[in-house]
Structures are given as C-alpha cells and as structure tokens.
C-alpha cells in the first residue's frame, strides 16, 4: 500500500489511511472463513446439536435470523451514521460486539444449543453491520476512476486475512489432535484465536482512518426519528436513483448464487464429490487464494473497462463455474471449478462495492451502503434456502441444487443490461 501511486487517492487521503482501511477487511475475514465456512458450522451440527436431524436447519435458521436483523437495521444505522457523522464510532461498536460474541462461541459445548445460537446471531449481526460501515469509507479514500482498484486492495487483503486465521486455527488443531484432544476442546480455542486476531488486526483502522463527514444537523426528532426521516426521503426520491435501485436488485439475485456457493461449497464437495475433510479444507484454501488474486487484479481492470462490464464478465465466469461443478465427475474438473469460483468471488464482490460507491450521494454514503448490505443479506437468505429446498425436494440431489442456484447468475446478468452508470453517477452528484 505504501508504494501505491498517490494519484489514485482522494484529496486528503494518504496511503497509510488506505492501508488502515483495507486492514479491516483483513481483520474481519477470519470470522467468515473460520466461523461460517470452515469450522464452527460443522462443530455446531456434529457436537453442539449432536448430529440431530434438525441440526443443519437450526444452523441455517440462526444465520437467517441474523441476516434478517441486518436487513431491518442496516438502512437505519446507515442513515443515523450519515446524520451524526458517526461511521467510525458505530464501526467500533460493531467490531467490539463481533469480537466479544465470537469469543462467546467458545462457551458453546455439547448440548449448549441456545447459547450457541445466541452468539451466532449476535456475532454475524455485528459482522454484517460493520461490513456495511467500513464500505461507506471507500468513496472518501479513492478518486472516482480508482474506486475499483482501492476496493480490490481491500478485498484481496481480506482473503489473505481469512487464510491467516484459518492457518493459525489449523495449526492449533493439529497440535491438539496430536495430544489426543477432540473438537470440544480445539474448536472453542479456535474461536478465541479468531476473535483475538480480529481485534488486533483492526487496530490500525481505528488509529489512522479518519471520519471526514460532518454532522448534518437533522437531530430535532431524536436519533431514531431523524434516521427514519432520512430513509423516508430516500424512498420518496427513489425514482432519482433508478440505476442504483436496479443495481441493488441485480445484486440480490447474483449474490444469492454467490452466497449459496460460500455457504455450501464444502457440503457439495463432500456430498457430490465425496471429498475428505482434508480435501475440503484444501479446497477452502485454494478458493481464498484465487479470490485474493481475483479481487486484486480485477480492481485494476474494472477501472479501465467499467464496473458494470466487470460485473458482467464475472457473472459469465460464475455461469461457467456452475456448469463445471454440475458436470464434474472427477476431481480435476471440480478443482478447476473451485479455482474459477475463487477468481469470480473476489472480482464480483470488489466490483459491486465500487459500483455502489459511484452511485451513492456524498451526504448519504453510509445510508446507501446500508441498502447495499440489505441487498446482500437478503441474498444470503435466498440463495442457501434455494439450494436446501432443491436438495430436500429431490432427495439429496446436490448437482441439481447447484444448477438451480446457478440460475441466479443468469438473472443477474440480464438485469445488468439496464444499468447506466454515467446516468446514475449524475443523479448521485445532484442529489
């Protein structure tokens, strides 16, 4: 970051500040990698819920509850942050909340279902809320023609942070297993490792990232009333932001496919491809490495060819990935699908964040990134539930399930065609 060309940065922003902003992606990615994707999910099903028939449903329901809470709260939190110039203060609150509740997962042992669900809902809620807030700083740090590049830096560093958290946990797990210790010991310790790394790695963000916004004075109705007033005004003038609205709808659909892949890739690998646990963990490592490369490289590409074209290119890649995974009969084709999924994962998420930054009015950035968070969380419910419903209705046909969720990428690609980024940017500037 220190050697990055300064002409990519917004006026007043420094390389150190951009690095500090990107470090938050590095810090919080360990949560999704270790808790949601690789470790605690399986522990919840097999140990906390003792492998009960309803265990997987209980896990997905807990996540759905947290996503629903974010959907309701994200626009309100964003509006309040804009009015009071409090993005950084709220980010600190959500970070502390996620760190404490992630550590709280260490208290969940066999049979502690209520405790585990409570801390899963809390930790994922705080994580998702913080994700929206940190994204709202992007337009303050990058010039308009470098939003994709700076966004890509953050996403790529984030995937490396996820790999570091996973690597530290796996190192401890290997040691614990060599000592004859089981999952009820090493998974709780892994939660503490993840929480600690999140806390430590986020310190540069709070030391060096500046809050540039100024309070807007709309506080006469109280902190809740003023935020609701702002949201009401946004909805009233929604016709002025039709390109942003269409992009958000597009994000709901194609992110539904992405969230299904993130949440259920390990399940597909084990059920459809008969991967062992070691192969599945290796799969996660490969996907994260390719995602880091995809986010970093596509960040530069999207600033040259445009954010919408970049998203379209990644959606074509997602469609190809779905067909590869669906048709894979041997491991080599599935590994190719996994590598392509990683590249598309980093690229599409980075491009979407940059596009939202382009279409957000300067005085409403946190609020509009709250709407972005609402769209992503809705997709986080829609995609995995679609996959689960198909497997239920087809008696466990995971290949048909992955093909069904792949249809969301096709819908997203069709919706992209009606988005005029230049028109949307003009609307944002005159808002």
Describe this structure in a few short sentences:
With 431 residues, this protein is an all-alpha fold.
Write a structural description.
The protein is mainly α and 431 residues long. The chain has one domain (15-210, 226-430): Growth Hormone, Chain: A. Helix content is 81%, strand content 0%. It contains 17 helices and no strands. It has helices spanning 15-38, 40-48, 55-84, 87-104, 113-135, 138-141, 147-178, 183-201, 203-208, 222-236, 242-271, 277-305, 307-327, 331-359, 365-393, 398-416, 421-430. Helix 15 packs antiparallel against helix 16. The model has no long low-confidence stretch (mean pLDDT 84).
Q: Indicate the structural class.
A: mainly alpha
For the record, what CATH class applies?
Answer: Mainly Alpha
- CATH evolutionary superfamily: MFS general substrate transporter like domains
Secondary-structure element order, N to C: HHHHHHHHHHHHHHHHH
The third-level CATH topology is: Growth Hormone, Chain: A
Number of domains: 1
Q: Which CATH-level-2 architecture? A: Up-down Bundle
Q: Kindly estimate the percentage of residues that lie in beta strands according to DSSP.
A: under 5%
> Which stretches are poorly predicted, pLDDT < 50 over at least 5 residues?
none
Report mean pLDDT, rounded to a whole number. Answer: 84
Number of helices: 17
Q: How much helix is in the residues?
A: over 70%
CA-CA gap between termini: 33 Å
* Rg on CA atoms, Å: 21 Å
Total beta strands:
0
| Biggest sheet features | none
Overall 3D shape: globular
């Amino acid at each position: 970051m220190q050697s990055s060309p300064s002409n990519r940065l917004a006026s007043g922003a420094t390389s150190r500040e951009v690095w500090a902003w990107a470090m938050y992606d590095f810090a919080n990615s360990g949560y999704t990698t270790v808790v949601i994707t690789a470790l605690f999910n399986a522990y919840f099903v097999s140990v906390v819920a003792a492998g009960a028939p309803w265990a997987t449903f209980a896990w997905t329901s807990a996540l759905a509850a947290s996503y629903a809470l974010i959907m309701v709260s994200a626009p309100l939190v964003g509006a309040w942050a804009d009015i009071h110039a409090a993005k950084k203060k709220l980010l600190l609150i959500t970070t502390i909340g996620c760190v404490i509740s992630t550590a709280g997962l260490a208290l969940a042992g066999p049979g502690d279902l209520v405790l585990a669900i409570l801390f899963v809902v809390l930790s994922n809620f705080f994580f998702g809320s913080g994700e929206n807030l940190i994204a709202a700083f992007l337009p303050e740090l990058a010039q308009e023609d470098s939003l994709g590049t700076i966004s890509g830096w953050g996403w790529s560093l984030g995937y490396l942070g996820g790999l570091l958290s996973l690597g530290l946990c796996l190192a401890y797990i290997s040691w614990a297993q060599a000592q004859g210790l089981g999952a009820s010991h090493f998974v709780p310790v892994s939660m503490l490792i993840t929480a600690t790394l999140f806390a430590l790695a986020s310190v540069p963000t709070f030391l060096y990232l500046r809050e540039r916004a100024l309070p807007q004075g709309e506080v006469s109705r109280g902190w809740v009333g003023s935020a609701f007033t702002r949201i009401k005004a946004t909805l009233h003038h929604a016709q002025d932001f039709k390109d942003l609205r269409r992009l958000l709808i597009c994000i709901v659909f194609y992110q539904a496919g992405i969230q299904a892949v993130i949440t259920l890739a390990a399940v597909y690998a084990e059920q459809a491809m008969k991967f062992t646990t070691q192969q599945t963990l290796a799969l996660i490592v490969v996907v994260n490495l390719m995602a880091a490369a995809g986010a970093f490289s596509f960040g530069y590409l999207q600033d040259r060819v445009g954010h919408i074209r970049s998203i379209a290119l990644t959606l074509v890649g997602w469609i190809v990935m779905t067909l590869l995974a669906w048709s894979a009969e041997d491991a080599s084709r599935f590994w190719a699908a996994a590598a392509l999924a990683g590249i598309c994962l980093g690229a599409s998420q980075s491009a979407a964040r940059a596009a939202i930054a382009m279409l957000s009015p300067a005085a409403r950035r946190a609020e509009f990134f709250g709407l972005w968070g609402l769209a992503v969380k809705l997709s986080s419910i829609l995609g995995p539930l679609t996959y689960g419903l198909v497997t239920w209705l087809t008696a466990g046909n995971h290949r048909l399930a992955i093909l069904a969720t792949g249809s969301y990428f096709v819908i997203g690609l069709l919706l992209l065609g009606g988005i005029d980024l230049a028109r949307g940017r003009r609307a944002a500037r005159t808002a």
